[in-house]
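Sorry to interrupt, but I need a hand with the structure work. I would like you to pick a protein and set down its sequence and fold. Please put the record directly below this note.
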Amino acid sequence: MNNFTLELLLHIIGIGSASGLFLKDNVLYVTGDNSSYLYEYELKSSDLKRYPLSENPAENIDKKLKPDFEALAFYGNSFYLFGSGSTANRTKMVRVNAETKERLSISDLSALYKRMQDLTGLNPESFNIEGVVYTGDTWYFFNRGNGNSGKNIVITFHGKHLTSNSKITFTELKLPEIKGVCTSFTDAIKVGDKFYFLAAAENTNSTYNDGEVLGSIIGCIDIKTMKLIFTQEISNRHKFEGLTLQYNRENELSFLLCEDNDSDKLQADIYQLKLNLIP
């Protein structure tokens, strides 16, 4: 078991249902799954800015209508925000210029998500993308196994352009339980040759309806073999959904995490997780 410390670091007023994080140049970028804004929070000044992701942006969007931006990826000079695909209106990808915050494009991924479902055998009720990693030539999609099939799957798209007919492969991973409920992916990032991911245990078999939160884990996957290296329970009461690297030192990693409060309160709690790796 790896030693870890977890503490509340920030309490940000103005962001609701935080679901994705990225730390860049002492600025924290945040997505909320019930919002159509990308948030920018300056750590030193506590200044919060909002950048629209649609023509008519809003916060606390009704559950039936929300775009459900659950995944935030960064590569080059762009942010990529992904709808979860858990309903027909949650299939958009928005690309944003990381410097100007200009909305560069909006893509409909419904055809890609359908390909992924057909290949993996996931029915629409079990499809729920919660994390995406882009390496410049390959995309990795993390399907949260909280649907009726209970499958945590890493789907690999072997190509740069998601609208192309590039090869898709997948790996299903068995994650541990908390209080008898299986944990399921809620976010993932790449650190060196490994993926670090969050997974939460929520007492529901629906990608749409929330359930009782039973805790969260962090885990590590070898990218080359796509096998689990370790998992570690970090909470028995929090539902952590966003993950970003703060620093990487010898035998110690520090991450920032956000908690999805599953409510209409415009407040976000950001935690710091320090993980001491056993050599």
Notes: The longest helix spans residues 110-120.
